[in-house]
Amino acid sequence: LRLQLETLSAVGAMPVARSVAAEAGLVAGSAARANISLLQPMLGEPLSMAAGVGRPSSSAEASILLLYMSFYIISLFLLYLQLQKPPKLEKKVEEDVPIFRSRSTFSDIDVEEAEYRRSTFSWLSVTWASSWVARWGSSFSSALTKIKACELPQLGNKECQAHESGEAFELLWAEEVAKNGEETASLCAVVYRLWTGRVLCNMLLVQAGRIFVTQLYVVILIEHALQYFQWLQGYVNANGDLPSMVLPMLVTIVAFSSLPFLNVLFMSLGSAIGNRLDQQLLGGLAVALFKKAQRLPASGAGNGSGSSAGNTPNSSSASESGEPAAPMANLDLMTLLNYDIAQQLYGCFEHICSCVNSFVAFVILMSMLWVRLKVATLVVLGIAIPTVMFSVARGAGLSVCMLDYQSKVDRRITTLREVLFGIRVVKCYAWEEAMEERISNLRAQEVTCLARWYHNLGIMYGIVLCFPRLLVLAGLWGYSAIYGHQDVVTIFTCMVILGSLRCMCEIFASSLGRIVTVLPTIGRVEAFLKLPEAPLILPHKVPKWVRLQGDEREGGAPQDATESQVAISLHGSFRWRPEGSTVLHGLSLDIPQGELVAVLGEVGAGKSTVLHAMLGELFPNEGPDDQPLLARPKEVVFCPQVAHIAEGTVKQNILFGQEFDEDRYNQALYCASLESDLKVIDGGDSALIGARGVALSGGQKARVAMARAAYRSTASVTLLDDPFGAVDAPTAKFLLEELVLGPMLRDRTRIIVMQPDAERLRRFDRVIVMEKGRVKENGPPARVMGTEAYQRLLSSQTTRFENDETSPSTQSPGARATAMAGKKESSETTVATALREEENQGRPTWTMLKQYCRLGRWRHLVNFLLIFSLQTFIFLLCDLVLAHWTNSMVFDPNGSDQPFLFAYFFWLVMALVVWFVGWNFGTWFTLRISGHIHNMALSRILRAPVDKFFDKHPVGRIMNRLHNDIVVIDTSLFLRFFGSFAVVVQTLIPMMYIHTIMPWFVSIAALPLYYLITCFVSRAWNTLAPMIYCIMTTKSFVTAKAGDVASSNVVLRGLQDSERLAEEFADAFNDANTVDLIAKRVLKRWLVNRVTFMWSFYTVTTFLVGMLNAKYIGAGTLGLCLTNLLILEVLLEPNIENSTGALFEFICLSRVHEYLSVPQERPALALDDVRYRSFSSRVQRSALRALSLGPRHANGASEVLLDGTRFLVPSADGTALCLAD
After folding, report:
1. Any idea what the Cα angle at residue 280 is, between residues 274 and 284, rounded to 5°?
2. Which of 226, 708, 1052, 1152 is the most exposed place for a label (fewest CB within 10 A)?
3. What are phi and psi of 17, to 5 degrees?
4. CA 820 from chain center: how many Å?
5. Separation of alpha carbons 681 and 856, rounded Å
6. Selection from 564, 383, 411 nearest residue 475 by Cα
7. How many CB atoms lie within 10 A of CB 1095?
8. pLDDT, tens digit, 9 for 90 and up, residues 173-205
9. Which of 348-352, 357-361, 851-855, 1216-1220 has the lowest mean pLDDT?
10. Based on C-alpha coordinates, what's the Rg of the chain?
11. Is 643's pLDDT higher than 50?
12. β-pair partners for 750
């Protein structure tokens, strides 16, 4: 108890001068037992120097201190100047920034190389990033700090950009396939050749150097610093004054300043090399996969590129083939890009280097620990192994809880998806309340699983927090029991070694986990690259049975005498896959130029399959009796049943890469009956459509695709798959007259799949009737309509229901404009809802945070914060026990170690108990937030109007908020917040103790340092917020481009736009990759380098002050201060990453919070409706005799009395009884 009270009293107490005579013998003996210090020989004076020798160099020492303080002040001033905001850009410049950075704008020298050539110091300090950090980090307001990817500097030289990396990767992959065959081709070998062995070796060495500096060098530094300090104390006690401190001060400045300098150097080198590796690998693979998806066949095999009517055979084709889809699971392009490449392969080689180097460092650290603790090291292992095994068991429990939680999430999301996609049905039946209750019950099950997960996680965190100190206790206790006393150098060196061992174990475990997940990723990417391709891929792959107009290849298909008059020739039998069954039999079609052809047939007859065969998407039957032939122009416009709508504006979808011709564009809008629609759509033809834009109806999408086909002047053949099926009869008639038969398509060959309609068919030149994959009739409409096959088709047709005439998507142009104009007029009075992510970059506000703190209960949050602060203070008391122990050795060399070890153990147990109490408060806080925020958002969404909300917000975006963002809030928000708070508390409490030990002028001099660190962290935080939104925006563009090719590669192959789209995808991926690397690496490096540099001033000053006051400061006290400072310096990078990483989670909270302010419908029930609702009342039989009729009202109805008191009263009209007031 006395020792605990002494430890508590030591907090904040200034050390006092001790008797020189009492200390002289022990300190000299301790120095003799210690290893030879690196600093001791530089003094050139033995420990036995006479006591009368004075200090000859006090002026030189003062000059060194003055120069160092001047350097400190100048450095802080220069760093402060970098925070000043540059001149504000004009708003016009902001608006004129293009969406993508064009490939032509890339130079051979990027911003990093240019800065390195200009100044190595500027490159190390990332000066080139200071201007835009000062610009975007000056405010947290979303209105002032929006970032576009094109405004960021070029990262990586030209050969590292996505397009060039993709070309290099495809060339290396082709060589690998040619050398080893497609089946045995190795993706790892290609990646190795892409990166080159020299660059990989450099990365491995840089990572090794950084681990040596941050882990091993710190151990060596603390050991020799304390050895020298012990020697210095012995000298002072023997001679009464300090020796000449000029050389020791210079060596101290160099030795302690080398740590941050080397850390900054290796971090900068690793970041530069890592950026190059990731740009080459991620960009090259992404572009290669995108181009591969463009070449995948339109087969029913689920080729991995997605499926739609434009890419895979429709239901009729599938049924007619009579064969099941071949399983190709886990080969989806979107998953490969968003998960495998963007997450798993990001920094993969860096993790390999970290895994190897951390293992080597672990072995070295264990050797160093064995040298100091000897056999007592086995005691450390005896405690560490069972603790690790217990942690592994708890980790398995965490995995089980998370799997249970994910299964519950999947059930809720499945139900939610059904409700949102059928929201009109839900509102028609007034099922909002019932659906809300059903989904809320599923959510309650999730929260229950989440509570179990947090319980196991609290146990894991408690073990992790106490593990290093537990090992220190085991090592010191074992050493004390086996060998007796330790000295201060051994104690604090072992503390640092054990802390480094824990860090190495964490790095090794996390890196190994990432490596294990990378292996399946490589397998999936490799399997995707080996998928079979379409039979016809222009211009790279043209089989012999295909003849293109103007193709003069030798050995090609035979020329036809009438080739110049024939637009499409299709002969032979065809199948979807080379090994599949035949779906088209014995075709012999020759369609002249400019002819209008209708293709008819029952469902599954092969109509759409014929169009795919004309595009070259089917494989022919090649045998002795088969002579397949496909003759077609190089460019063919194809409009599938489900129209291809790319991410972009209406205008961009119609132009689709073509030059703008205003007259032709306006004519295309008129012929497609889009003029009236554009008048009532906000933004007109500049309105954004696609997955992240305005929700168009099926008819509007079909007409946008038909306008694109009409505008495409370079195509001589147009294939339309059921163009009239998505519109009403008046609109279909208009499209037939003005588009199909109009001036824009009149001279083209038009092949249209449609339903039999005698009035329309009479306008066609030719009619083809399909039955079971065969052409039954082929000729003029008058003859075909009189055939048995046509009559049989008519008799088999079911009644076709016309679309609802009141729907804007199916009305005639005039009626549709009138109906939608009314909607527009009424919606103009409401607040517009943002349609795209980048237009609504919300930030977490104090008002929002206070609202959720009230939901989670302030008392839970405050209790958690206070108790965790108390636990951090108790950990400091553990360290103070060690300092008190080492200081007491001076006064009592033969004292017992057991009281100090028991005191250390006492505070350790107290910290563990306090942790579990505080963790329960934090768990209650986050679980209440998780339970309430989802239900609040769900209630508002279900009661939002369809026209003002659901028509403007894609269901996918709502699902993303209530799925991904809610999962982040459940599992990461509290942990990130706790991590940020822990960084602050675990820094402040040790620093407060250090300031009580150091002289007051040191604390005053540290104030500018703390101010600048706060400013830098604040600027980085403010810059990271818009950067996160920029990452989301650029990645959504990448996803949109990938979605285009995944769903409609047949359309794109017909238009011959593959190369243009591949370049656009490469530009979009470049932007996404650049923003991601700048946010995750460059911005972090900019902040860490500055904070590390400034922190070194405080570390150097602390040891200088300790040396100059060796008589007053105990070795244990200085060792505790120095150990804490060096550990904080080494942990600056992960601590800063934890403190700034919480921003993404708060943004997720803000995005969900936005749905609490969506417009609402009027309540389904008014307050006056309550008294008219039916109700049931249970009355005991014995009480019935107490009921009696009361007075009769004017309407003839009587009251009901219960024991003489009014119980029921009649309504005003006398038709119902209501409860009395």
Report:
1. 150
2. 1152
3. -70, 140
4. 38
5. 42
6. 383
7. 19
8. 999 999 998 889 999 999 999 998 899 999 999
9. 1216-1220
10. 38
11. yes
12. 596, 718
Q: Give per-residue burial for 424-461: e unless 16+ CB within 10 Å, then b.
A: eebbeeebbeebbeebeebbebbbebbbbbbebbbbeb
CA–CA gap between residue 475 and residue 378 (Å, rounded): 8
Structure-token match 């002249």, residue found: 592
Q: Could you give phi then psi for residue 649, rounded to 5 degrees?
A: -85, 170
**What angle separates helix 846-856 from helix 1132-1153, to the nearest 10 degrees?**
90
Does the CA dihedral 1063-1065-1071-1074 come out positive or negative? negative
Tell me if 159 sits within 8 A of 1070, measured CB to CB: no
Determine the Cα angle at 1160 with ends 1157 and 1164, to 5°: 145
From residue 186, how far is each of 193, 525, 530 by CA, in Å? 11, 11, 11
User: d(Cα 961, Cα 963) in Å, to the nearest integer?
Assistant: 6
Other residues' Cβ atoms within 10 Å of the Cβ of residue 196: 11
Question: How far from the centroid of its chain's Cα atoms is residue 508's Cα?
Answer: 23
DSSP collapsed to 3 states, 1067-1112: HHHHHHHHHHHHHHHHHHHHHHHHHHHHHHHHHHHHHHHHHHCCCC
Over residues 755-785, the pLDDT tens digits come to 888 888 999 999 999 998 999 999 999 999 9
Two structure tokens written together for 1142: 């919480």
Tokens in use for 12? 């904040």
Separation of alpha carbons 1198 and 1193, rounded Å: 6
Three-state secondary structure call for residue 1214? coil
What pTM was computed for the model?
0.79
Please give the pLDDT value at position 610.
92
Encode burial over 1162-1201: b for 16+ CB neighbours within 10 A, e otherwise.
eeeeeeeeeeeeeeeeeeeeeeeeeeeebeeeeeebbbbb
Task: Please state, in angstroms and rounded to a whole number, the distance separating the CA atoms of residues 629 and 547.
Answer: 7
Nearest 5°: phi and psi at 779? 175, -170
Encoding tokens for residue 893? 């060399």
Per the CB < 8 A criterion, the answer to whether 1133 and 267 are in contact is yes
Three-state DSSP class for residue 719: strand
Q: What are the C-alpha distances in Å from 1105 to residues 63, 888, 957, 1002?
A: 15, 22, 59, 9
How many alpha carbons lie under 13 Å from residue 353 in its C-beta half-sphere? 21
Distance CA 801, CA 584 (A): 30
- The residue that leads in pLDDT, 689 or 822, is 689
* C-alpha dihedral, 939 to 942 to 944 to 946, nearest 10°: 170
Which amino acid is present at 334?
Answer: M
Q: How confident is the model at residue 1128 (pLDDT cuts 50, 70, 90)?
A: confident
Strands 582-592 and 566-575: antiparallel
pLDDT tens for 860-913 read 999 999 999 999 899 888 888 888 888 777 667 777 888 888 888 998 999 999
For residue 489, give the nearest of 1124, 1125, 1119, 1109 by alpha carbon: 1119
Q: How far apart are CA 522 and CA 1101, in angstroms?
A: 50
382-406 residue pLDDT tens: 888 888 888 888 878 888 888 888 8
- DSSP assignment of 1043-1068, as one string? HHHHHHHHHHHHHT-HHHHHHHHHHH
The backbone torsions φ and ψ at residue 159, rounded to the nearest 5 degrees and listed phi first, read -70, -15
d(CA 593, CA 565): 6
C-alpha to C-alpha distance for 130 and 573, rounded to whole angstroms: 66
Place of tokens 């081709």: 185
Cβ-based neighbours of 171, under 8 Å, separated by 6 or more: none
First-residue to last-residue Cα distance in the chain: 69
For 221-259, write each residue's pLDDT tens digit. Answer: 988 998 898 888 888 888 888 888 888 899 999 999 998
